[in-house]
Design brief:
This protein has 1026 residues and is an alpha+beta fold. Among the domains are: 92 residues, Immunoglobulins (Immunoglobulin-like), CATH 2.60.40.10; 95 residues, Immunoglobulin-like (Sandwich), CATH 2.60.40; 264 residues, Protein tyrosine phosphatase superfamily (Protein-Tyrosine Phosphatase, Chain A); 182 residues, Protein-Tyrosine Phosphatase, Chain A. Helix content is 25%, strand content 25%. Strands 27-28-29-37-30-36-35-34-33 form a nine-stranded mixed β-sheet. An eight-stranded mixed β-sheet has the order 40-41-47-42-46-45-44-43, with helices on both faces. Strands 3, 4, 6, 7 and 8 form a five-stranded antiparallel β-sheet that branches. The longest helix has 35 residues. The protein starts with 12 loop residues before the first strand and ends with a helix. About 12% of the residues have low confidence. InterPro entries: FN3_dom, Fn3_PTPRU, FN3_sf, Ig-like_fold, Prot-tyrosine_phosphatase-like, Protein-Tyr_Phosphatase, PTP_cat, Tyr_Pase_AS. It catalyses: O-phospho-L-tyrosyl-[protein] + H2O = L-tyrosyl-[protein] + phosphate. It is a single-pass type I membrane protein.
Length: 1026
């Protein structure tokens, strides 16, 4: 005989509290309370775990709670969090609860400051550092400790030993300015938050101060050593670099302008951005010209220099004009750390001037007046000729659709060429940065204007690409510099290929290890064509027949990554290609230790064309943890090229966006570290050059790369692909839009220009997207055009290319394995979509064969059943529909807003061992036949939500999308799906990129301008609803 418990447990109280534990105790329970010898005690508590948005309720059985002093310990609680606790007494007849007890857990050390929140504004001698509080404070933040230490400097003569320190900031201060720093130096900043329990883990960031202009010696009032009518000799003295060593000196001869400067006024050093030759100074109306360029070794001590004499091959010196009042000046370009100084020629003694100078002044004035009139007429005629030529150039697709516009959405240029140059000059004047890459202008292959790139590539492809063939064959093949270190016996096993190894002058030298004379070698080369984009090319050996060298090479790889402070690794090869091992797997699936370097995989982001892996890397003895990302492009065949450059261009931009500017060189590798590696680097460098200079110089960039590592860009096909990729990038521009700017960008893109009666989104769709959409040739669709397949195509103008066909596997007596369908990539998975036409009466069986053979678990139907258009109902409303060996069984149906959901069970009764497959069809009713776009954006998003939910709930497989012809409507669904995934993954979107990617496989995807606009509108609706 049992009864309900008399009352709940009494005396529930806290025995002790820690940061993550609470010990509870209560009064002993007797039979008079429990009313049963068999009873249970359960602790029910509610708290909010770390990182969770809402509180959770949990229960624990108190097994050790019987006896004279019952107690229980709650573990794994969140520090500094309120916990609501009840003790529940239950027997078979009922239950009783105790009074609720509220407990605040103790404080703990806080979490780390979010690394992504750390920002730094760099100046020449100070850095402004800012950060955000830890996401998990675990208490009340008392203060922050910020320490800094100098790591390196471009100037090797600078003593950085005293460049370190530490400051404490109050809890409400999340910024600090560090003053008194050295220019051109890299500093490591460590930030720790503290509660009453102590400091949390550190967050580390690196920033570098800007390089200052060199400090010039004083030349004021220093007379020249000697002078004549055509020459002047001055004493040049060495300058002192600030943040970087002086790289060279330039001697500039400048016309004296007494009206702008009076005697005794200090000379102001200026930058001379354009190197004007003496022969061109008059023609360009320049008041200065470059007389000479001298190496640093020539002026390591005070050295006489004569302006007007020939000083060798590196000199630009010419005789000075007789009688012209000039001054000599050593100019400096601030961003390049060139040194500068000035000397001033003494004022002439007017009393000693000869009378004949006054007498001929009138004659000289007359001659000058005639020359000025003549030049005015010539310039007027030339201006008219240039205006006519410019008008013809602009009429050619409006300068290739605003070439290399930094953002087609945010800035619409009125004059493409002129505004590009103006933007470039403004940026140079503001930032004083060097151009990313400047080849020698005297070379045989000059740089090409971006606006002329399309015409240049078209000409190069004439005569079966003879121009590209001739250029590529002019490159030096094979070894061009010594590589003695790589050929040493102890290093031979570290090279994957004997003919692609590191040159001595550019190889990466590892810090040597004790007792190992070859420990400083790795098959890796510095490739620093631009200061803004330093790279390391590396070959990761796969090990061959011996396991030892493989492990040793991988250890060397991570040693190099740590030593060079690398933050990004770019991998453009697969581990195995065509059955051959191309690269060893040098990263762990969880965590592993390579020598004294520990590597832990933190996150893997799988996308359709590449993978992003994030690692936490530690080195024994170092008090920091570095976050390193690996960007693995998976769609590049060895010795070949991707079919289209769209995916690779998005990959290049993603690498650049995610690589911290203050990090060390980016490590790039393929199999040998030559062909595909070189392609990636050239594309990245040239995109920077096109954006900042308005020109590209692919030929000389490849030549420079080959001077640093052998056979960079290995095939002519890769060389042509580089040109095509850069052309596509210049035509399309960077069309990505941050989520927080989408609304304003959409407003600007749809704003109508009253003069042209057009808007930017219309130009983007019709002039840019349609222009870069590939056109399918007859040979591209050879299988669809076979006579036996004609009756399987709804329209002979909408055919899938051979490379995208999903060939049917289940034959079932059929002679053809063709269906009018194409495989398409989603944002996260390759070939995640199959786009097809509505089945014809004679292809219904093929349609269900496609569903079964390609593991399609979702069918999206975007058109109506219409027998008049040969669009039959291809599914059973109930029972079983038999199609040869296939059986389609109706299971259930449901209606939700504008979507009818039907579930079918499909199986092949001739292969019972394969089992059955559950397939859900989503018929969208919100897109009438007479409309170009759906009626409601919200209902279209509901369709996407239902499809995603079906996949998440276990319907993991491909999505088959069809409309009438498998084009416009299907393209809208796939594009919006990609755009929504972009917003979820990286808080930005790129509608242009999404549609262009789909059109690479099927040009009729998203056929109409209104459908293209609808993709943007649905993205806005998605952000609003989210």
């Amino acid at each position: 005989f049992h009864e309900h418990p008399l009352h709940g447990c009494g005396g529930l109280q806290v025995a002790s509290v820690r940061s993550k534990e609470v010990t509870l105790r209560w009064d002993s329970l007797g039979y008079s309370v429990t009313r049963c010898h068999r009873y249970n005690l359960t602790l029910q508590y509610r708290h909010r775990p770390a990182g969770a948005a809402e509180a959770e309720e949990r229960q624990e059985a108190a097994y050790e709670a019987r006896g004279a002093a019952p107690q229980h310990v709650l573990r794994d609680l969140t520090p500094f969090t309120n916990v609501s606790i009840k003790l529940i007494l239950s027997n078979p007849e009922g239950r009783k609860e105790s009074e609720e007890l509220l407990v605040l857990t103790d404080e703990d050390v806080p979490g780390a400051v979010p690394p992504a929140s750390i920002g730094g504004s760099s100046y020449e001698q100070h850095i402004r550092l800012s950060w955000a509080p830890p996401l998990q404070t675990y208490g009340r933040i008392r203060h922050y400790e910020v320490s800094f230490k100098a790591l390196s400097s471009f100037d090797s003569d600078v003593d950085l030993s005293n460049q370190s320190g530490k400051v404490l900031k109050a809890a409400n201060e999340t910024a600090h300015t560090f003053d008194g720093l050295f220019p051109g130096s890299t500093y490591s900043f460590t930030i720790r938050a503290a509660t009453a329990k102590g400091f949390g883990p550190p967050a580390v960031a690196r920033f570098a101060t800007k390089i200052s202009a060199p400090v010039m010696p004083t030349y004021e009032r220093q007379p020249p050593i000697n002078q004549s009518d055509a020459t002047v000799s001055v004493l040049l003295r060495p300058a002192r670099g600030r943040g970087a060593p002086v790289s060279k000196y330039q001697v500039v001869v400048e016309e004296e302008r007494p009206r702008r400067q009076t005697r005794g006024t200090a000379e102001i050093l200026r930058c001379y951005p354009v190197p004007v030759h003496f022969m061109n100074s008059t023609q360009l109306n320049s008041h200065y010209y470059f007389s000479a360029e001298l190496a640093v070794s020539h002026i390591n001590k005070p050295t006489p220099f004569c302006v007007g004499e020939d000083h060798g091959d590196n000199s630009m010196s010419r005789a000075m004009a007789a009688g012209m009042l000039r001054r000599t000046k050593i100019a400096h370009e601030c961003a390049r750390a060139l040194s500068g100084a000035a000397t001033k020629k003494p004022e002439p003694d007017h009393e000693k001037q000869s009378d004949h100078t006054v007498k001929i002044a009138g004659a000289v004035a007359g001659v000058l007046l005639f020359i000025i009139i003549f030049l005015g007429l010539v310039l007027l005629m030339k201006k008219r000729k240039l205006a006519k030529k410019r008008k013809e150039t602009l009429s050619s697709r409006q300068e290739m659709t605003l070439m290399v516009n930094n953002s087609q959405h945010t800035t619409m240029l009125s004059s493409e060429t002129s505004s590009l140059v103006q933007n470039h000059l403004k940026q140079r004047e503001a930032e004083r940065e060097p151009p990313p890459y400047h080849p020698d202008p005297a070379q045989m292959h000059p740089a090409i204007r971006v606006a002329d790139l399309l015409q240049h590539i078209t000409q190069m492809k004439c005569a079966e690409g003879y121009g590209f063939k001739e250029e590529y064959e002019s490159f030096l093949e094979g070894q061009s510099a010594p590589w003695d270190s790589a050929k040493k016996d102890e290093n031979r096993m570290k090279n994957r290929y004997g003919n692609i190894i590191a040159y001595d002058h550019s190889r990466v030298r590892l810090q040597p290890q004790d007792g190992d004379k070859g420990s400083d070698y790795i098959n890796a080369s510095y490739v620093d064509v631009t200061r803004a984009s330093p790279y390391i090319c590396v070959c990761v050996r796969a090990g061959g027949r011996v396991a030892g060298p493989m492990q040793e090479t991988v250890y060397d790889f991570w040693r190099m990554v740590w030593q060079e402070n690398t933050a990004a690794i770019v991998m453009v090869t697969n581990l195995v290609e065509v059955g051959r091992v191309k690269c060893c797997k040098y990263w762990p699936d969880d965590s592993d230790i390579f020598g004294d370097v520990s590597v832990t995989l933190m996150e893997t982001q799988l996308l359709s064309e590449y993978v992003v892996r994030t690692f936490a890397v530690e080195k024994r003895g170092a008090a920091e943890i570095r976050e390193i990302r690996q960007f693995h492009f998976t769609g590049w065949p060895d010795h070949g090229v991707p079919l289209h450059a769209t995916g690779l261009l998005g990959f290049v931009r993603r690498v650049k966006a995610k690589t911290p500017p203050a990090a060390g060189p980016t490590v790039v590798h393929c199999s040998a570290g030559a062909g595909r590696t070189g392609c990636f680097m050239v594309i990245d460098i040239m995109l920077d050059m096109a954006e900042r200079e308005g020109v590209v110089d692919i030929y000389n960039c490849v030549r420079e790369l080959r001077a640093r590592r052998v056979n960079m860009v290995q095939t002519e096909e890769q060389y042509v692909f580089i040109h095509d990729a850069i052309l596509e990038a210049c035509l399309c521009g960077d069309t990505s839009v941050p989520a927080n700017q989408l609304r304003s960008v959409c407003y600007d893109m749809n704003r109508l220009d009253p003069q042209t009666n057009s808007c930017p989104i219309k130009e983007e769709f019709r002039q840019t997207l349609n222009m870069v959409t590939p056109t399918l040739r007859v040979e591209d669709c050879s299988i669809a055009l076979l006579p036996r397949n004609h009756d399987k195509n709804r329209c002979m103008d909408v055919l899938p290319p051979d490379r995208c066909l999903p060939f049917l596997i289940t034959m079932d007596g059929e002679s053809s394995n063709y269906i009018n369908a194409a495989l398409m990539d989603s944002y996260k998975q390759p070939s995640a979509f199959i786009v097809t036409q509505h089945p014809l009466p004679n292809t219904v069986k093929d349609f269900w064969r496609l569903v079964l053979d390609y593991h399609c678990t979702a069918i999206v139907m975007l058109n109506d059943v219409d027998p008049a258009q040969l669009c039959p109902q291809y599914w059973p409303e109930n029972g079983v529909h038999r199609l040869g060996s296939l059986q389609v069984e109706f299971v259930s149906a449901d209606l939700e807003e504008d979507v009818i959901s039907r579930i079918f069970r499909i199986y092949n009764h001739t292969r019972p061992q394969d089992g059955y497959r559950m397939v859900q069809q989503f018929q969208f009713l919100g897109w009438p036949r007479y409309r170009d776009t759906p009626v409601s954006k919200r209902s279209f998003l509901k369709l996407l939500y239902l499809v995603d939910k079906w996949h998440d709930d276990g319907g993991d497989g491909r999505t088959l999308v069809h409309c009438l012809n498998g084009g416009g409507r299907s393209g809208v669904f796939c594009s919006v799906n990609i755009v929504c995934d972009m917003l979820r993954q990286q808080r930005s979107l790129d509608v242009f990129h999404a549609v262009k990617t789909l059109r690479n496989n099927k040009p009729n995807m998203v056929e109409l301008l209104d459908q293209y606009k609808f993709c943007y509108e649905v993205a806005l609706e998605y952000l609003s609803s989210a």
